[in-house]
Amino acid sequence: MARTPAGGRGGSLRPPRPSRSSTPPPRRPFPSRVPGPRSPPRVPPARSAGRPGEVDCRGAAGVRGRVPGVGRAPPFRALPSAPRPAGAGELWVGRRPGGWAGPPTAAVAPEPGCVGGRTKAEQPLPSFLKMGNSYAGQLKTTRFEEVLHNSIEASLRSNSLVPRPVFSQLYLEAEQQLSALEGGSRVDNEEEEEEGEGGLETNCAPNPYQTHPPPEGCCTTDGFCQAGKDLRLVSISSEPIDIPAGFLLVGAKSPSLPDHLLVCAVDKRFLPDDNGHNALLGFSGNCVGCGKKGFCYFTEFSNHINLKLTTQPKKQKHLKYYLVRNAQGALTKGPLICWKGSEFRSRQTSASTCSGSLFPPVESSGPLAAFSSEPVPGTTLSLPTGAQQAGPASEHPSLTAAVGPAVLNGKDSPKHQQLVKNDPSAVPRPSALGILSNSGPPKKRHKGWSPESPSATDGGYSQGAGDRAKYESAGMSCVPQVGLVGPASVTFPVVASGEPVSVPDNLLKICKAKLVIFKGHGNFPYLCGNLSDVVVSPLLYTCYQNSQSISRAYEQYGASTIQPISEEMQLLLTVYYLVQLAADQVPLMEDLEQIFLRSWRESHLTEIRQYQQVQPPPCPPAPSAVAPVTSAQLPWLAGLAATSCNDSVHIIECTYSLAEGLSEMFRLLIEGKLAKTNYVVIVRACRSPAIDSCVAVTGKYQARILSESLLTPAEYQKEVNYELVTGKVDSLGAFFSTLCPEGDIDILLDKFHQENQGHIPSSLTASSVTKSASLDVGGAPACTSYNLEPHHIRPFQLAVAQKLLSHVCSIADSSTQNLDLGSFEKVDFLICIPPSEVTYQQTLFHVWHSGVLLELGLEKEHMTKQRVEQYVLKLDAEAQTKFKSFLQSSFQNPHTLFVLIHDHAHWDLTQHTLISPYNEIHWPASYSNGVDLYPENKKYFGLSEFIESTLSGHSLPLLRYDSSFEAMVTALGKRFPRLHSAVIRTFVLVQHYAAAMMAVSGLSQMKDYTSVETLEITQNLINAPKQCPCGHGLMVLLRVPCSPLAAVAYERLAHVRARLALEEHFEIILGNPSSGITVGKHFVKQLKMWQKIEDAEWRPQTYLELEGLPCILIFSGMDPHGESLPRSLRYCDLRLINSSCLVRTALEQELGLAAYFVSNEVPLEKGARHEPLESDAEKLSSTDNEDEELVTEGSTSEKRSPVKRARSRSHDSASSPLSSKTSSKSPGSALCGESSAQPGAPSQGERARSPQPCGPSEEGRAPGERQRPQASRGPPSVISRHSPGLAPQPDSGLRASQRSVQVSVTPSSSQLSSSGSSSSSVAPAAGTLVLQASQCSMTKACRQPPIVFLPKLVYDIVTATDSSGLPKAASLLPSHSVMWASSFRPLLSKTMTSTEQSLYYRQWTVPRPSHMDYGNRAEGRVDSFHPRRLLLSGPPQIGKTGAYLQFLSILSRMLIRLTEVDVYDEEEINLRLREESDWHYLQLSDPWPDLELFKKLPFDYIIHDPKYEDASLICSHLQSIKSEDRGMSRKPEELYVRRQTARMRLSKYAAYNTYHHCEQCHQYMGFHPRYQLYESTLHAFAFSYSMLGEEIQLHFIIPKSKEHHFVFSQPGGQLESMRLPLVTDKSQEYIKSPTFTPTTGRHEHGLFNLYHAMDGASHLHVLVVKEYEMAIYKKYWPNHIMLVLPSIFNSAGVGAAHFLIKELSYHNLELERNRQEELGIKPQDIWPFIVISDDSCVMWNVVDVDCGGERSREFSWSERNVSLKHIMQHVEASPNITHYALIGMRKWSSKTGGGEVREPFSRCHVHDFIILNVDLTQNVQYNQNRFMCDDVDFNLRVHSAGLLLCRFNRFSVMKKQIAVGGHRSFHITSKVSDNPVAVVPAQYICAPDSKHTFLAAPAQLLLEKFLQHHSYRFFPLSLKNHSHPVLSVDCYLNLGSQISVCYVSSRPHSRNISCSDFLFSGLLLYLCDSFVGASFLKKFHFLKGATLCVICQDRNSLRQTVVRLELEDEWQFRLRDEFQTANAKEDRPLFFLTGRHI
Questions:
Q1: For residues 1241 and 1237, what is the distance between their CA atoms, to the nearest angstrom?
Q2: In the chain, pLDDT over 70 holds for what percent of residues?
Q3: Distance of CA 1167 to the CA centre of its chain
Q4: Contacts of 1934 (CB under 8 A, 6+ apart)
Q5: pTM of the predicted model over 0.85
Q6: DSSP 1163-1174
Q7: Banded model confidence at residue 832, pLDDT cuts 50, 70, 90
Q8: How far apart are CA 1261 and CA 727, in angstroms?
Q9: Which of 510, 537, 781, 1992 sits at 20 to 30 Å (Cα–Cα) from 1310?
């Protein structure tokens, strides 16, 4: 609800009075340390949760960034220290030595000790002066309504609770519907204005207006006032203007100056709100020029400012604009004033309240106020009780001078409200009417009243409105942030009304705790006196304000008609909430926020559903509100609610101000009348509709916890230090010494020591001391339980590592060019860790034992520890130097990929994380749909499993609290109210441990001075080594966050241990982050013996190395830093963690210390129930237990939930010493859904419900094991790892966690006392871990996790769930360094995955200044994210270190793999069939072929290319080929699978696909430095080809950068030709032959980047693509020339591409000859060659031969990689090159023998990469219909034409195996069926006119495929009959490997083999042309029964061919021997006719 400056509400019966003085005191500069407003980002930075590690992959460009900060910035910023006065309109928030002082005025200083107090001159007037009866501004239609107003006013003023008359109620109800009771109880004055001022104008023509003549001598110049002062805005915009309180600057329009505005100061109560309503009738204004005040008529005022009007002066017509100040402080024209009837009339109010009632100004910043801390002794507490907060103003930077252009000159300006209308939560919207007070202005025409008169308003308004107006006009709307535990916000000055309230001097002594007062609604009085005993917090105020904002879910519907929850209802719900709290519960703001949200949803369910189902009408009607709680009813209802709570909540109602109620409360406290009261609610609601309220926490337990929770960590440490240093704790020690019946405990200890000196106490006989001694002598220990598991990677860790690698690859594959993995050859890394010595040593251990350094090639076999240290960086003072060397190394090694890993990144991530939500990797769930995804022999037991152990049905809870310890702490807290509870808790716990040690040592009387839990722990600690022959014991972790207290605990326990002679029974270790581990010599000796360590200098350096050591580890430090604990940890004592852990991250980290891996194989110990682990599948599929999950709703009291009741009985250790259950629900934020990392929600890891499989935990227990295996969901980390924290968990998370492991930890015998055993039975035997005789404690280490003890407060939060099963912790903040963006946020859902939880936190939290991303909050802009930064998150101890080390290993392997390529490595085929000839090319050293010698070489018809292993053999002479010489036919799918490949390292001359992004070829690839693609143009190119009978039209796509290769017409720019060089050119700078690469389906994988292959030489490369693929190829290869085939070839094969390339090239040759002939160049000098290359040619090689002699048989050779440029320039330099038609090279094979390269040149088939002479081959064409073997077919045609084919045997090409595209892109499927059933080749042909299913494939493809696999059906005699081949005329078709063919050409003068000796077994006539005649066929002889196959385009051609060739003379045909390809008619099938030779 918006509130006026003093906190009242607009629209009361009388307007407020302005301040008494209109001249404010001088202003001073605003304090400099003021954070600007912040707007929460839509996708803010990643919040860390588990233990993140950040991976920053950086490449040749080096590592960008800075070393992560060493210390985390304090989460809260201190208040500015510079004091400054706060006059009207100024904000003053500063600390003074004497405490807080109110805003001093010019005349009087505040009284000493007054907090924010007012001077006596400013005190409010006595109440009788406020009485009066005025109707100004109210309805004036009838006298009746005036009387009615009086009646209502009297009832509202009444102090009695007597119900008002029905008539009044009816009136108020009607009024509420019109103008919203909550906003101000007055009907808008629409009718009054119309009647009073607009009647004449609207109904009749206006009369001419007669003006009075101006006084003589006055100024009458337009734009100046009568005193001659300039009023024009342009003239005085920069001048300071003094504005009285309650006035606004507005601009008046003068008819004579249409281009100017005149500046006026007008009382804002006479101006309308943004709905055009609520302006008081009349006028009150001042002249800003001459300063004249008190104009009460607008007529009078218009005369003074020389408006010179010709009509009746009306303020509505001439006051047009609000004036605002911009960022430079200059006045500028603002928004229109929203007069009724203007364009604003149709706007709906956003709530049915007076304007702006939605958002009350907030009083302080955020949930917990930093200023509420207990002062350091010697100073006075500072309380900004006068500060008022403006809610999340950060969302609207435009409203603040710091970032936005304009600031309102008055806070209450309607413009202000209009600006924030779009986001109601953004800023407070004060009412346009000002404060409601019971006095008001007289009637409109009463001139005697002035807004400045003393009766106008109380003093509060003068300061409120005046200060605020001044503050706004100063242009300062950004204010200092106050540190809070909850969401912080911005503070604005608040002024209190009434006398300062004096705090009694002896308050602390009486109350036994500091009083905590939460400001509520309205104004809070100033406090003075004993301020150190009171803490004032704005948390509740912030909560109220945030709950007023309309849900974001409905913002899309515009101005919402759904009202926020009213102030009265807020306060009433607060009372209900407090009433239901149990005596041991503490209120949580998150609970209250959720209560408000639920209440709002329930009350507006109808409207919400309406909005969810249909779009509302443009102006939806205001909903009829359910009868609201009125302010008069509020105290009565609140009192009624409080009657049921046995006075734990006390209601105090005030009449005038909260000061009365506070004074009354202090009086009752002093008198002892509130002894049973925990909360006092003070409300002032009867004086006006606006209420004032506050809540005081008087309960000793609650007040202590709340006051301490308001301290920042730094303040907490400071306070504890102070108490220790100053000796304040001595009184506590003295008290303990009196407890012992025999006097001081130390005296008892000394006495015991003297009595037992020299011998071990009898109770500790056979201890581990004697055992270990015997072991030294006696040999191997007898205990088999102590085994260090070897280091290994778990399936989960491998999965996470692969996921990280996948993300890195996706970054490299993206088009942003941010990472070119192909340019790196190795990996280097640096791991940054927090400044913890143990974590540092632990990480060194992991790195050393993982083998990653050896695998990455960074170190040799025998590395030293010093070498390993260079890869791990501890973020301490010396980190900078090490990091700089890492950076330097990255710059010096451009081919090394440097990975920066920030482990435990949530602790202190480098500023500006810039992590994209897409770069978050969350630890995966272990189960999916009931399937165990990563089977392991150990399962992770984390937070969710701990919580589950507390549920009913489990034999023993693993989470517990100690009720007797809590009771003693509470009692001592009352006795020592000035000591911090952390000090008390520590001293009590140490006392308990000391007493327990004494009791176990024989002083049984001390059992009464410890708790059952502590006695159990101590007894098992001391007795465990006796159960093991080797003396193995258990570890007790004692968590003491505060280091000074940890030191005290260590000294005390060590002293007690020494006096009891227990030094060799167990060790006490002080674990401090800043130092290493110190262990006594005796225990080091034991550890070395157990771990078989022979190094004399060895000392344990990590906690994991303490495996089996009986010890108490006192673990200090405010946060765990990732230290792993051994499996021998049996007790995790967290009873000393404080309220600072009540955020999700901290909670999950603390509880993560106990995370464990339990064996999956060993059956669990039997407990009360024999249950195996419940399978996760069941857990996930069943929902019955889900509501037992984690969070409690608003009321957390145990009495409410049966589940909780069951829990708490068994957890209370007093009632059940052994069975205390403890659930680890996270207290605060951790547990949400799956999201958090460990704690609260089943955290990440945990979330996986079932304990995850675990091996030795990597981080986790056991010295040797260190890989944390999987957790169910981890937080994100980069590898930025965090362990707990915000990480969302996988879905299995929450639920899983809840149910996952039902581990019973009891020993197998049932000696445990059952849960009912009384606390007197000390039997630690009863304890869960009481060890049986001769059973080593290590035996159970793998199957039972530790037992965790928590403070009761934390335990309750962790184990609580709400009715939906959502963990209580889900509502906690995720981290101290963020705050909630709004309390109107949705709840986390149990089903949310980790990723969804992360997005939830990004959306609903905003960073505080201490957050790593505070300065990096762009509104979700993608360019704000770092492209190479990743976040890996997982639960604590799950195995993240092992995962990222494994990632480094596989990344290194992948880089090596990226520098390698799989190339075909196949031996040439059919070598034995090569025809032995007398002619060989024996000049072995010739670099080029000798033309004359070469012509004499015979042509080798045999195909030797291994890819044609399944092709038909070509016979050139009678060969005796045995069938076994030919391979068996293979299935088509095996052809690809079975081909042999070899992995080769890419050379610097390789061709690349689109994934290669190196800097050298960026320009070649067309990627501009700013990543804008080059422009390209489309050109048509047409030529005619007679054989096709039509003109061919092709299209070229030519990038601008390649246009120099072409000739264009001038003018016109038409493409004419492609430039060709001359044969005589000898330049070495370019390649002469254009290269054409036909391709399909390989836009990503085709090797088209020839930049490196050509060694940078200029070349012309054209991609030949199909029309439908043009766009995708252009996208991936924007700088390549493309030749686009006509659309008719979209379904054609490679033959069509080859055909068009060759024909186009010949046509272009002709064009170039003609063009250059005009330049005097001979046609034969134009270069006639082109290159046709496959898209898979990757590298080229040359063979170097060393011949002993020219013809010597002995020669040696070697092969090396060379550039394609080298090969091409060598070939192009060949003598007589133009005489060769085709030139090619060998296909590379590792099996190549010397015989194959001995002869440098061969005359044979060439494939894959050919150099084609288009001039010589003019009359030889490729067959455009062919799909396969078209190169063999073409080679045969070229040879038969008498042309030369030359293969350079000394050159070879490597072809890459590419699994996609190419011929594999052709799929043959049915044309009619949608079912993609495979069609076998036998179905590719059918009988004509049959009903065979037609296939969707080209006819030629079906033909070729059929003949390849089933040609034996046509040629049965030819099968395996190689002596009698099939005669194939003019074509080569593959008939399969079992059939041989003989190729002959029918062309005249063609070169054919002699066929006279052949008897052919068949004849194949394929589309034969006119050259084939009957006489030609009669030359050949056939076997009897040989078969014929004639193939034609149609049936008619078939018959004509039979007749023309006279086939029926020798061949017999049958009707049934006709076939066709299985095509539909429209697809033009091919037809066959078969016959037998007669």
A1: 7
A2: 66
A3: 42
A4: 1508, 1510, 1511, 1512, 1828, 1829, 1904, 1907, 1908
A5: no
A6: PPPP-SS--PPP
A7: very high
A8: 40
A9: 781
